[in-house]
Amino acid sequence: MSKNSKDKSSDNEKNTGKREIKQVFITDEGKEKSEVSKSVKTEQHKDNKTSEPEHKHTVHEAEHKERKVVRIIALSVVMLSSLLLAMCVGAVLAIWDSGRTISEFNAILLGREVAATSAITYEESETPSDEDDEEASWSDEEEDANDDEAGEDQESEEPEDEEDDYGNTISSDTEGIEGVSRAGSGDEIENHRDEEPEAIKDPLADYPLPFTTVDESYFTDALFIGDSRLQGFGFWSGLPATYYCATGFQLYKYDTTNVVQTEKGKVPIFEAMPYDAFTKIYIKVGLNELGYGTEENFEKTYAGLIEKLREYEPRAIIYVHAILPVTAEKSEKDKAHNNPNIQVRNESLKKFAKDQKAYFLDAGPALAGADGSLPSEMTNDGIHLKPEYMKIWKDYLCEHAVVIE
Questions:
Q1: Which one of 96, 171, 300, 320 is most buried, counting C-beta atoms within 10 A?
Q2: What residues make up the domain containing 17?
Q3: Number of structural domains, the chain?
Q4: pLDDT in tens, 124-147
Q5: Rounded to an integer, what distance in angstroms lies between the CA atom of residue 55 and that of residue 64?
């Protein structure tokens, strides 16, 4: 076979995809003769064309699976991150709603018991808003708590020694610890009256009467109404009186704030007050209201409270207590609840008490230092007295009592 024939055959094979088998033999005349004996299709060209797409398809499928796995992983990470973020936001909202701090929340997670604390923020307004109904308590570490003489006295269990709400370490076996732990909850501290009070004259008949000194038995039929400072006094002074006091108690809400613990739950003071049971009533409000309204509105509301008290307790002598001073440091930091403003309000209260035929009491000078401020050693937060200084306040009340013969 000639070279040209072979080339043609090769080209033909490439073009047709067939391979021809030829036979060459000699004819009778002595000439070469060739003929195709068999034609075989070749699959090589076809295989080359089909194998390449199949390979590309396999690679594409692998890449698609890989991208799918990456998308699934990315989606899982996003969902997990969203869940963790939602949990964190929920926890923060729960802490804020319960009035707890982050450190307290951490303590709870670790199984430690803590007293609930929160700070109250005052805003200038004509009258208190409904949002102020839940007054927050004060904390030793948060001296900017602008509660009216508010105290941090939230409910808690006492399995071990801890620091009480006035900065003193108290043991779990201390007598009366359960009552102390409830301070600030609005409970009535205790009713010490065992007998009906003796009949007395009209308290306004000979007004004003001079102050005289009495002993603690004078207070067995006395009622104290007021804020957390007065509530702390009830726990630590030892005076055998009845106390309708609560953390954040405010004059503007005296008829709606739940203060007295009863069998049906906590109720406002006039829903629990027995008729004609008290012969002395001590009222101590004023600091918490410095951020609200006008002096005229304050005195009008105060007069309404006294009028209602006299309807319920017609034989009671009414005492209007001045606001105690705060420390100099607290006074400098607080724009509303500072000693200059306290002095102005106390002057108004003194005149107001006279107009109402009530007796004005001011234990501030007995407690204050030379500058008129509360000494820093007497308090942990600039506002509330430590228990050991309650005796000074108690002695002042015993030395400034009115006795109707």
A1: 320
A2: 3-42
A3: 2
A4: 334 444 444 433 334 333 444 444
A5: 14
